[in-house]
Amino acid sequence: MPFYVPLPPAAVPLIGGAAIGFLSPGPRPRRLAGLAQAAALLALLAAVVGAVRLDAVSATMLLLVTFIGWVVVRYAGTYLDGDARQGAFTGWLCLTLAAVTLLVTAGDLLQLCLSWIATSLFLHRLLLFHPDRPAGRRAARKKFITARLGDVALLGAAGLLAWDYGTGDIGAILHAARAGQGGGPATAAAGLLALAAMLKSAQFPSHGWLTEVMETPTPVSALLHAGVINAGGFLLIRFADVMLLAPGVLAVLVLVGGFTALFGGLVMLTQPAVKTSLAWSTVAQMGFMIFECGLALFPLALLHIVAHSLYKAHAFLASGGAVDRVAAIRRPGPVAVPGAGAVARAFLTALVLYVMVGLGFGLTHKSPQAIALGAILIFGVAYMLAQGFADAAPGALTRRTAVYALATTVGYFALQSAATALTADILPATPSPGPLQWALIVPAVVSFGLVAVVQAMFPLWADHPAAAGLRVHLSNGFYVNAIFDRLVGGWSARVPS
């Protein structure tokens, strides 16, 4: 059983950094930026040292959180230099990071629930850092309502698990669940865990708040999209053995996660603003992570969290400079648009590449769920190849896309094997799919494939009036978020002092 500590050493310097920030809440507190960065670096070093005492899941998440936290705190020191509430912002930022470290290292249900709620409440203060912005208050209000519903679901799940297994120790609960123990309360707890995770990770139709929190400072966006939003996926991974007791709940995760991934990915393509596009990308990525958990591919979901967090933190923190660099690029001429033949060749090439590389990594011994997930990911490779296979594409682009496609395929199998080996003693193996799972896997692969084909060929139809109308509806997320606005429009948001 993994070893846990009630207060991980990584949280101590972060709590100290928060105290320093709250003692000097105004602009340019003396030595605050340096002390906060030192606290974040000490937290990272403590996580490196303490990781050996944790299981692979908690160790991975702790290292990820403290590393991203250190980067965000460093960035915030310059980004908010001179702001009227710079010290208070640093305090809430460090306190949020400390709560997340408590969450990912929780060894009992009480610490898990308290740190889950604390993370959300501290983040809420950051989301309202500019209380005079109505759009920010509206997004924070919707986030607050969604988070409280998730809190209720998690508390209910914790109560059911403690009742069914007679203990609040997470390690003991997982050990018993892996042995097949657990009755109706455990199954109901799995359903509530899934609900809490979907609400936390902004799954359809509760996704709207995540796309509207752009009124916050960029460090908050980076922390949210690269860190806190992953708590839903972490919850499912942490309780993977319990989730396997409820195949029906896993099926719901496949449906909701898969639809959210497709929906968020399509809407993302229509967003003109960089940060808004990144936010919709997060919606899609979180959907795909929930989809992976629904397929019982928990090691891959953990790998997804790490990869997405590192990418999204960099994307948000570099978004301003990226806009300037793109604006300075001189367009070389018309974009090479692939025709139907180029798209067909691209998909055929990607599938052949997937099979050839996969056989070298033991493709025939992998679970059907993992094979299906790889096929879905290879559709992205096909889309990339289609650009290089276009008739007007220069030879350099064709060669570059071919190299990228090969590297992506090899990387997927290599990282998949590493993640599975790293968590072999912690996370359960993926069970053989039953009729219900097959009824979900096949339509999912077909759906992602069709969307990839449509996406690759959309430039050919972009001038059609129907395509223009579809773009308008997509850019507004088919107005689902407007319904949420109507439901909570009468609620008031208290402006913090």
Helix and strand composition category: mainly alpha
Shape: globular
Count of individual beta strands: 0
- H/I helix tally: 21
Walk me through the structure.
It is built from 21 helices and no strands. The model has no long low-confidence stretch (mean pLDDT 86). The protein is mainly alpha-helical and 497 residues long. The longest helix is centred in the first third of the chain and has 32 residues, at 134-165. It folds into 3 domains: 9-105, no CATH class; 134-322; 334-482, no CATH class.
Produce a short descriptive summary.
It contains 21 helices and no strands. By secondary structure, it is mainly alpha-helical.
Topology:
Layout: H1 11-23, H2 32-50, H3 56-79, H4 86-104, H5 109-127, H6 134-165, H7 170-178, H8 184-200, H9 218-226, H10 231-238, H11 240-243, H12 247-268, H13 274-294, H14 298-317, H15 319-328, H16 340-360, H17 368-389, H18 395-422, H19 435-461, H20 465-475, H21 480-488
Keywords:
single chain; 497 residues; mainly alpha; 3 domains; 21 helices; globular
